[in-house]
Design goal:
Pfam families: AMP-binding, AMP-binding_C. This protein is an alpha/beta fold. Helix content is 29%, strand content 27%. It folds into 3 domains: 156 residues, 3-Layer(aba) Sandwich (Rossmann fold), CATH 3.40.50.980; 157 residues, Rossmann fold (3-Layer(aba) Sandwich); 80 residues, ANL, C-terminal domain (GMP Synthetase, Chain A, domain 3, 2-Layer Sandwich). The strands form 8 sheets. A 7-stranded mixed β-sheet has the order 6-5-3-4-7-8-20, with helices on both faces. A 4-stranded mixed β-sheet has the order 2-1-10-9. Strands 18-19-21-22 form a 4-stranded antiparallel β-sheet.
Length: 453
């Protein structure tokens, strides 16, 4: 059984706390084992067949985790959906051919199990059933189009964690249906670590929880770290327990990285890299204030490799998905995944410049939104910024910026003037935004990604 090694470690951990739930209650590893058994019995009673495609609605905690592992034990292809994506659950169930829907967020001890709209029929599911292995389906956030469902062989993801790791009290900040969130969950479970679940993901709530539960590892995103520093919540709470802060999912501006390093001097800052298609790769930052990282390589245990073709990163790894449910394969004929990320290379390290699809072509000159955002973010009074391109009849496109100021009463005309003056001499003229919109709305999504365009 693919999850057998995890169950053995749970049994050995016994009464150790597995989850600090969002409501403050505790669940031990012994209790988690009992929940997994109960979840299996509930699935049997409902008639969920081995190898079925099952949508699992829930969040980090013992309830959803128990169903995840019970479903994998019977070879199911699990489609997790976190609360921030519940509005798209119907679409995901249709695309994922979900034969069953398990609502682990219902509050019932055995969950709520109901028939889904699908029949578990898809060639990729057939492959999983033929080999007798469970699956995991991760949907992309769909910020630039329809969400794509990436189908993984769950045994490949689980095999990364069979060896021993380190036991850290970890805050489950990332999302239950995000590949990095699943990776964090499995790492913690494989080392019988305590997982601290937040009730909300505001800077105040997260910092309060870190202090109260002596959290050692915070996996998060640059957007949240920026909001945290702006709020000052890190100064109002004792965050001295933090040993490691990992970040990914979007570009980290150098100035923000330096501010975070100064605010959390005791913590090691580590940039992570991964995608829904290839999983979360192991990585090592050159230093806490450096955006250069080493990714993959033989030390990650999965034989991950990378190369750069025409400035774009390509990755080949044993944790790659089998394919999409609803889109053509993004792999080359020899198995390299074309990430679409533009990078620079220094020896065995890379530094990310931005998504190739985000590049703005201004009269033949390429502009990386992240570069412009980083310079604007340095200016006094800027809380958030998002840069994109707007169509132009002569140049093809011009740079557009949306900014939210720390002072909501700031006069838009004065803001535009200050930004253009502040960028003069720091950016080439064609990179300076021609259009600047001042907004009082957040420029990050519920998944802590920038709202560009």
């Amino acid at each position: 059984m693919a999850t057998g090694f995890l169950l053995a470690r749970f049994a050995a951990a016994g009464d150790k706390t597995a989850f600090v739930e969002a409501d403050g209650s505790r669940e031990s590893y012994a209790g988690l084992l009992a929940r997994i058994e109960a979840a299996g019995a509930a699935l049997d009673a409902a008639g969920v067949r081995p190898g079925a495609a099952v949508q699992l609605r829930g969040d980090f905690g013992a309830a959803a985790t128990a169903f995840l592992l019970a479903l994998w034990a019977r070879g199911a292809a699990v489609i997790p959906v976190a609360p921030v994506s519940f509005e798209k659950a119907g679409e995901f169930a249709q695309v994922g051919q979900a034969e069953w829907i398990v609502d682990a967020a219902s509050g019932a001890a055995s969950g709520a199990i109901a028939p889904g709209p699908g029949s578990s029929e898809h060639p990729l599911y057939d492959d999983l059933r033929r080999r007798g292995v469970p699956g995991l389906v991760i949907f992309s956030s769909g910020t630039t189009g329809a969400s794509k469902g990436a189908v993984h062989d769950a045994t490949r993801l689980l095999s990364k964690f069979e060896g021993p790791g380190k036991d850290f009290r970890t805050l489950a900040f990332l999302l239950f249906d995000h590949i990095a969130g699943v990776d964090t969950l499995l790492y913690c479970l494989s080392n019988a670590s305590t997982i601290v679940c937040p009730a909300e993901r505001t800077p105040e709530a997260i910092c309060r929880l870190i202090a109260a539960e002596a959290v050692e590892v915070l996996p998060t995103a640059p957007s949240f770290l920026n909001l945290m520093l702006l709020s000052g919540a890190q100064q109002a709470h004792d965050l001295s327990s933090l040993k490691i802060v990992t970040y990914g999912a979007e570009m980290m501006p150098q100035a923000l990285l330096e501010r975070v390093a100064a605010a959390l001097p005791q913590a090691r800052l580590v940039q992570k890299y991964g995608t829904s298609e290839i999983g979360a790769l192991r990585s090592r930052s050159e230093g806490s204030a450096s955006r250069w990282i080493r990714i993959g390589g033989h030390e990650d245990g999965r034989g991950a490799e990378w190369r750069v073709v025409d400035g774009l990163l390509e990755v080949r790894t044993g944790t790659a998905m089998l394919g999409y449910l609803n889109a053509p394969s993004p792999f080359t004929d020899d198995g390299w995944y074309r990430t679409g990320d533009r990078v620079e290379v220094k020896g065995d390290m890379v530094r990310f410049l931005g998504r190739d699809s985000d590049v703005i072509n201004v009269g033949g000159q390429k502009v990386f939104p992240a570069e412009v955002e980083a310079e604007i973010a340095r200016l006094d009074g800027v809380a958030e910024v998002a840069v994109s391109g707007s169509a132009h009849p002569i140049l093809g496109a011009v740079v557009t910026a949306r900014v939210r100021m720390t002072d909501p009463g700031a006069a838009p005309a004065a803001v535009r003037t200050a930004i253009r003056r502040g960028l003069a001499g720091r950016l080439e003229p064609y990179k300076i935004p021609q259009k600047i919109e001042v907004t009082d709305q957040p420029l990050v999504t519920d998944r802590f990604k920038q709202r560009r365009g």
